[in-house]
Amino acid sequence: MKLHTFHLAYGNRTLSFQIEARHLMDQILPEVPVVESDELTPVKKAMDQPVQSPVLEELVRPNDRVLILIPDKTRKCQVQLILPVLIQRLHKLGVDRKQIKILMAMGSHLPQKPEEIKSLVGERLYTQFSIVEHDCHKAETLKYMGTTTRGTPVYLNKELFENDRIFVVGTAVHHYFAGYGGGPKMINPGCAGYETIRKNHALTIDLESGGIHPRCQSGVIQGNPVMEDILESMQWVRVDFLIETVLDAQGKIIAAIAGDLLAAHRQACALVDDFYKIPIPEKADLVVASCGGYPKDINFIQAHKSLHNAFQAVKAGGVILLLAECRDGIGSRTFLPWFDYPDVPQMLKALKENYTLNGTTALSVKLKSQQVHIILVSSLEDS
């Protein structure tokens, strides 16, 4: 009897298991390039060859007040490597440390501990620079910009309008209902008010299809109401320069694109498709999946994205075994109450009438659980 041994990421460690060869249908892995000896090589090259944008030397003046947006702990990005490179170049252009502010694009995520922020940016930058977390509930930090054609009131962090230059550092990834993460999502929902995020995410709910809008899918922008609404809100923001990475499964930089927010993001998304879109010729009875470890399995809300991907590969009536540590628990106060509704129609009706954040994730889990069996290996309490 031939056995295959697999080691899958779980939090900061790996879990191992064996499968008989005769039961193994396939192992689905991305086809990514080898990481360069210096991870920053593609970043530096991208900054020197920006897409539809002048280079930094033509953008920045010595007296400019600079705002740098970075993701929070739920997004791998290698910020601790990229920020020193960007800041060093700003210093060479005459921008002093006191002229630079770092804003963490938190969206609606919960506040982080000081040590978590320090691990993201590195101890030196943590002690030397002003680092602020965006708070979507803090009305005094928000500015009303207008309303989109889909009815989303756009409230954005005032810092976006009180600095001379805005830089965004992020990572392009697939997103299960917005199409892609990174780029414009660093602004909205990253630096948006709660009501902006709530109304935008509510566009996922589609009574006609009896679930989530059919165009709210990974890798879909055109016709995706959520992403089109986000892109419309970009009319009120001027971002000067995007530095966007693409990472491998271990969180190493394998590619980078820099330049105009939307143009550079589109190119980064094309690379994400090249590396991570994988055909599934035949669905399986059992899919064993890992989120990729921390921070992708930091909580259940984030882990659901991997559950969504695994769902694409399993037969109706099949089983998904998902490895997701969820060290920070569920990750949302508004997620579990949606399961008080006994069925999908009642949940849908309530979501349409009074949507709360992570309602889409709750609906997605509910719909999946009606079609397949889901086994979660995690540190969550059974209750």
Short description:
The chain folds into 2 domains: 3-28 and 281-377, 2-enoyl-CoA Hydratase, Chain A, domain 1 (Alpha-Beta Complex), CATH 3.90.226; 41-276, LarA, N-terminal domain (Rossmann fold, 3-Layer(aba) Sandwich), CATH 3.40.50.11440.
Question: In words, what does this structure look like?
Answer:
With 383 residues, this protein is α/β, with parallel strands linked by helices. The chain has two domains: 3-28 and 281-377, LarA, C-terminal domain (2-enoyl-CoA Hydratase, Chain A, domain 1), CATH 3.90.226.30; 41-276, Rossmann fold. The protein contains eleven helices and 17 strands. It has helices at residues 41-48, 56-59, 79-92, 114-121, 123-128, 194-201, 225-233, 261-276, 300-311, 344-353, 359-369; strands spanning 3-10, 13-20, 66-71, 100-105, 130-133, 142-147, 153-157, 165-171, 173-175, 179-181, 205-206, 211-212, 241-247, 253-259, 284-290, 314-323, 373-377. A six-stranded mixed beta sheet has the order 5-4-3-8-13-14, with helices on both faces. The chain has a three-stranded parallel beta sheet with strand order 15-16-17. The chain has a two-stranded antiparallel sheet with strand order 1-2. It is globular. The mean pLDDT is 95.
Features:
28% helix, 383 residues, 2-enoyl-CoA Hydratase, Chain A, domain 1, 2 domains, Rossmann fold, alpha/beta
**Annotation, overall tally of beta strands:** 17
Share of helical residues = 25-40%
Instruction: State mean pLDDT (0 to 100 scale).
Output: 95
Q: Return the domain count.
A: 2
Strand order of the largest sheet: 5-4-3-8-13-14
